[in-house]
Specification:
This protein folds into two domains: 34-59, no CATH class; 64-144, Immunoglobulins (Immunoglobulin-like), CATH 2.60.40. Strand 4 (99-102) and strand 5 form a beta hairpin. The chain is elongated and about 100 Å long. The protein is built from one helix and nine strands. It is mostly beta strands.
Length: 148
């Protein structure tokens, strides 16, 4: 009988593993999106030329808050102060009534927006306030003193 001269393949021994320091955090698997560079618009063109796609970060809608307008004026008993304008739910065609907080203070909280709000005050939605339109930054609370 013939002896089998073929040697059985040996499995290589695993490499020794060095223990991680106690303060080290386990490495999290990174998604391909997380490895894509975040860049400005100017650098995005350069990356596109190189064949890399930049990550475009859209503004988070949850970070935009409502805009509050306070008008400091006494328009007389029985009158209502309205506001008209552009942005945050306002229109120039029809006014929104403001809530009377005190004898000389009116308040309204407008919808969420990312653009500046342009507005003007009206007494009883008929008589326009004097002067230029007011421009208010989105998400701010401002106190304005209109004149009629």
């Amino acid at each position: 009988m013939k002896k089998n001269t073929r040697k059985s393949p040996k499995t290589p021994a695993p490499a020794p593993v060095k223990p991680a320091p106690a303060s080290a955090k386990p490495a999290a698997a990174k998604s391909p999106r997380a490895q894509t560079p975040k860049v400005t618009t100017a650098a995005a063109t350069e990356l596109a030329v190189k064949g890399l796609a930049p990550v475009v970060i859209a503004p988070n809608p949850d970070t935009v808050v409502a805009t509050t307008i306070i008008a400091q004026i006494d328009i007389g008993f029985g009158n209502i102060l309205f506001v008209r304008g552009d942005g945050a739910g306002l229109s120039w065609g029809q006014g929104l009534a403001m809530a009377n907080a005190t004898a000389d203070q009116w308040r309204i909280t407008l919808g969420k927006t990312t653009k500046p709000v342009t507005l003007k005050f009206l007494v009883n939605d008929l008589t326009w306030s004097a002067g230029e339109d007011y421009v208010v930054e989105p998400g701010s609370t401002v106190t304005l003193v209109p004149t009629f």
